[in-house]
């Protein structure tokens, strides 16, 4: 198990590894794997035992190759047994002896061996989380692919965790996420994958050229450190890039779509929802811009408002296609993290609270996955009453609003909605005021605009 002591004497280690790997590959060969909470043969514990042996003794070998070779041996043994006694111990046709083959890192191995490696990866993730390693750090290292050298993988994970705990690491992570979000949004919008190498000849500003130059200068040292598996040194070289990267984002206009903002007077700044980067930006009175919240999984941020509890709330939904129910209202914490306050919304475009603390969400369109997602579509206004554990189910107050884009509630709880704010002919937009809508009783059908 994960907390058991493991042997260190070579013979003891070899015997323990052979025993556990034999058991695991054997069960995988006959397709007897743990399912859900069921693990009658303690295979998860056996995998953790192998992980402990490898890590504690810093043993490095091609794990998937060992699995594949031993599975071949197991299947041959089964085949020989069947030939000797086809009707005694086993009914004919019970086993189909042979390996399904696939490529792993360019080498042919059994499919079961790759599947067993994935099982080990899941066990290792649990092992590392129990040691306090962040889940996103673990996933980032696994996303490199071909990770069957567990000692090397864990060294990477720990080096990355240590680096992200530093100020330079935290800032570079924000810069990386910002760039990755922008590229991801552009890829979805254009329907292509931008995986080519950037070319300096297309740089237009001095800050862009300086970034290219700094990256070219740092690459040999980073590559050498990675080759030597000195991940701390590689991270230290990357940390040197922070000033030039910060300058790049400060001075170069990167695709952005600031949608809405609220004052944050205690901090001397404004909070701005960015509809392109999936970020809430903190904009100082001196013009300096910092990322306040990296809202992962919520690509289009729209309305932002301060709630009765003092927290900022921001509406969000996905890029095209705008699937029904994939939007949400998020509550932001002072450290930039967030919780989903209300889920299951469709293209929520703005948000407001009335004097009684009730929540109002304006939806832009009702969602579609067709080639023309906007034609003939309408939005609606919903109201949510507070509940002890969050918010009650929403009530649709108004339906069939043509392209509503903004929502405001004044001190007397009169509700203002702008309509035809997009995809409409010039001059057709209006602002509509609803004087008594906030007091509309629950249970009534929605008004049809």
Roughly what is the average pLDDT, rounded to an integer? 83
Q: Taking strands numbered 1, 2, ... along the chain, how are they ordered across the largest sheet?
A: 11-12-13-16-20
Order of helices and strands: HHHEEHHHHHHHEEEEEEEEEEEEEEEEEE
How much of the sequence is in beta strands?
15-25%
- Helical percentage: 25-40%
Largest sheet: number of strands, sense, barrel closure: 5 strands, mixed
**Shape field:** globular
Q: Count of helical segments?
A: 10
Structural class: alpha+beta
Question: Overview of this structure, please?
Answer:
The protein is of the alpha+beta class. Helix content is 37%, strand content 23%. It has ten helices and 20 strands. It has helices at 10-29, 43-56, 63-84, 111-130, 135-142, 150-164, 167-190, 206-227, 231-239, 242-251, and strands at 101-104, 107-110, 258-264, 269-274, 279-284, 289-294, 300-306, 312-317, 327-332, 338-345, 348-353, 359-363, 379-384, 386-387, 390-391, 395-401, 406-409, 415-419, 430-434, 447-448. The strands form six sheets. It has a five-stranded mixed beta sheet with strand order 11-12-13-16-20, with no helix packed on it. It has a four-stranded antiparallel beta sheet with strand order 3-4-5-6. Strand 4 and strand 5 form a beta hairpin. Helix 6 runs parallel beside helix 9 (231-239). The protein is globular, with a radius of gyration of 29 Å. The N and C termini lie far apart (64 Å). The mean pLDDT is 83.
């Amino acid at each position: 198990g994960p907390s058991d002591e493991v042997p260190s004497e070579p013979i003891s280690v070899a015997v323990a590894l052979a025993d556990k790997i034999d058991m695991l590959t054997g069960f995988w060969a006959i397709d007897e794997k743990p399912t859900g909470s069921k693990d009658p043969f303690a295979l998860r514990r056996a995998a953790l035992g192998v992980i402990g042996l490898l890590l504690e003794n810093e043993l490095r070998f091609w794990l998937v190759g060992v699995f594949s070779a031993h599975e071949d041996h197991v299947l041959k043994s089964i085949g020989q047994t069947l030939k000797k006694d086809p009707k005694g111990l086993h009914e004919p046709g019970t086993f189909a002896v042979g390996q399904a083959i696939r490529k792993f890192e360019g080498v042919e191995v059994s499919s079961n061996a790759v599947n067993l490696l994935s099982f080990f990866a899941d066990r290792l993730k649990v092992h590392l989380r129990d040691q306090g390693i962040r889940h996103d750090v673990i996933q980032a290292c696994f996303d490199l692919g071909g990770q069957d050298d567990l000692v090397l993988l864990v060294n990477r994970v720990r080096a990355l965790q240590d680096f992200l705990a530093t100020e330079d690491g935290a800032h570079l992570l924000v810069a990386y996420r910002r760039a990755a979000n922008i590229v991801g949004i552009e890829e979805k919008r254009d329907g292509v994958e931008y995986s080519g190498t950037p070319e300096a000849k297309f740089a237009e500003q001095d800050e862009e050229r300086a970034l290219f130059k700094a990256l070219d200068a740092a690459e040999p040292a980073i590559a050498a450190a990675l080759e030597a598996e000195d991940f701390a040194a590689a991270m230290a070289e990357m940390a040197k890039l922070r000033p030039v990267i910060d300058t790049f984002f400060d001075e170069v206009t990167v695709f952005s779509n600031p949608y809405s903002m609220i004052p944050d007077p205690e901090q001397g700044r404004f909070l701005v929802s960015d509809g392109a980067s999936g970020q809430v930006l903190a904009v100082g009175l001196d013009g300096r811009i910092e990322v306040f919240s990296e809202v992962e999984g919520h690509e289009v941020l729209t309305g932002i408002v301060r709630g009765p509890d003092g927290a900022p709330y921001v509406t969000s939904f996905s890029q095209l296609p705008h699937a029904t129910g994939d939007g949400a209202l998020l509550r932001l914490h002072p450290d930039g993290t967030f919780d989903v306050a209300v889920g299951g919304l469709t293209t929520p475009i703005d948000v407001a609270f009335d004097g009684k603390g009730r929540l109002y969400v304006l939806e832009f369109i009702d969602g579609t996955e067709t080639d023309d997602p906007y034609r003939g579509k309408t939005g609606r206004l919903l109201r949510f009453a507070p509940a002890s554990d969050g918010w009650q189910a929403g009530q649709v107050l108004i339906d069939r609003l043509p392209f509503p884009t903004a929502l405001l509630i004044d001190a007397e709880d009169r509700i203002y909605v702008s309509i035809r704010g997009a995809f409409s002919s010039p001059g057709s937009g209006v602002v509509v005021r609803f004087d008594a809508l906030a007091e509309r009783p629950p249970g009534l059908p929605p008004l049809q605009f």
